[in-house]
Amino acid sequence: MLLRSHRSLSDAMDRLSQESASSPEAQDLTGHHRSSLVRAMGNSAALERLSCGLSLCIGVAHARSESDHAAWNDRFGADPAALTYSYVEAVEAVGGGYESRFIFSTDPALNSISGD
Q1: Measured in Å, how far apart are the chain's first and last C-alpha atoms?
Q2: For 24, 71, 89, 102, which has the most beta carbons within 10 A of its beta carbon?
Q3: Is the CB of residue 104 less than 8 Å from the CB of residue 57?
Q4: Span 6-105: which CATH code?
Q5: How confident is the model at residue 115 (pLDDT cuts 50, 70, 90)?
Q6: What is this structure's pTM?
Q7: What confidence tier does 114 reach under pLDDT thresholds 50, 70, 90?
Q8: What is the C-alpha separation between 101 and 6, in angstroms, rounded?
Q9: How many whole angstroms separate alpha carbon 16 and alpha carbon 97?
Q10: What is the crossing angle of helices 24-41 and 6-20, to 10°?
């Protein structure tokens, strides 16, 4: 249900950001993964929001087309600097583009995520 509901996702991201505010490690992970996502997206998509803790990141991105979304998603998944151990997303056509709501694990011990 988390990835299907804009409100639930936003609330989860707010909680994660608040919990991570006092953790320099979580802030470093957020910056690292933000850089990897932005690099993967290039000019074909935009990262709207990203929140990371010590083992999970939650984000929202917008792409112009389904192929742009697939391209940045593939580049991010192949980036050796952006190790993800589990990744789940919901993609929806929104106003002539595509919105991706996603969760991924940065912890090898957390190698299975359900977006429901």
Answers
A1: 4
A2: 102
A3: yes
A4: 3.30.1360.100
A5: very low
A6: 0.88
A7: low
A8: 9
A9: 27
A10: 130
Token pair of 62 as six digits: 């917008």
Q: Which two tokens stand for residue 65?
A: 């087309």
**Number of helices (H) and strands (E), helices first, in the chain?**
3, 4
Q: Is 86 helix (H, G, I), strand (E, B) or coil?
A: strand
Give the CA distances from residue 81 to residues 25, 33, 36, 107, in Å, rounded to whole numbers and listed in that order.
16, 9, 7, 14
Query: Judging by beta carbons within 10 Å of its beta carbon (0-12, 13-18, 19+), is residue 33 exposed, middle or buried?
Result: buried
Domain boundaries, the chain: 6-105
pLDDT for the residue numbered 116: 47
Q: Count the Cβ atoms, other than its own, within 10 Å of residue 77.
A: 12
Tell me how far apart the alpha carbons of residues 75 and 84 are, in angstroms, rounded to a whole number.
Answer: 12
Q: What is the average per-residue pLDDT within 6-17?
A: 88
